[in-house]
Design goal:
The protein is mostly helical. It has 4 helices and no strands. The chain is flat and about 95 Å long. The termini are far apart. The relative contact order is 0.05.
């Protein structure tokens, strides 16, 4: 059925003994590691946060982790825009008619604030004259500002406040 001009010949790697041991396994393992690092670079922009090894110090890995987070945020924003434009808008227009405003898909993680780092920075900058609003600190901490008659903990006493003994 197959003409002789189309015959396939399978060649063996010389010196391998026909098995998957020795230099052939080493070559394939090295190739797989190389390809894996290329994929990590393409997807994450770096490899230090995904590979264990002697390639860098912890601080360099933390810097690369920030790069990964930047790429993650960028990808989430691009995916949100694409889904909103190409999926959600046509579905709403089809089912509800044309609109002035359309819903949007929002993808991503809620940004976290390093309260300890901000507190240390404030401790260093306040003696130099940095002024901040109390309302900003309540917002950063995710707390409500106390009302006039609320029982409070810590801080300066004002009005009728009570602390824990």
């Amino acid at each position: 059925m197959i003409p002789e001009s189309m015959m396939l010949e399978f060649a063996q790697v010389s010196g391998s003994g026909g098995g998957s041991s020795g230099s052939q396994a080493t070559a394939h393992g090295s190739l797989l590691e190389y390809i894996d690092s290329l994929i990590s670079k393409a997807v994450l922009g770096q490899t230090l946060t995904t590979e264990a090894g002697d390639k860098g110090a912890r601080s360099l890995g933390e810097v690369h982790d920030e790069v990964r987070h930047d790429i993650e945020r960028s990808d989430a924003m691009a995916l949100s825009q694409t889904l909103s434009r190409d999926l959600l808008r046509p579905l709403v227009a089809l089912n509800r008619g044309e609109r002035k405003r359309y819903p949007q898909v929002l993808i991503g993680r809620e940004e976290t604030i390093d309260i300890e780092r901000i507190s240390r920075a404030y401790q260093m900058l306040a003696p130099l004259g940095l002024e901040t609003k109390k309302a900003q600190w309540y917002e950063i901490l995710g707390l409500d500002a106390p009302e006039e008659d609320d029982e409070t903990l810590g801080g300066r006493r004002r009005g009728r406040t009570a602390g824990l003994a």
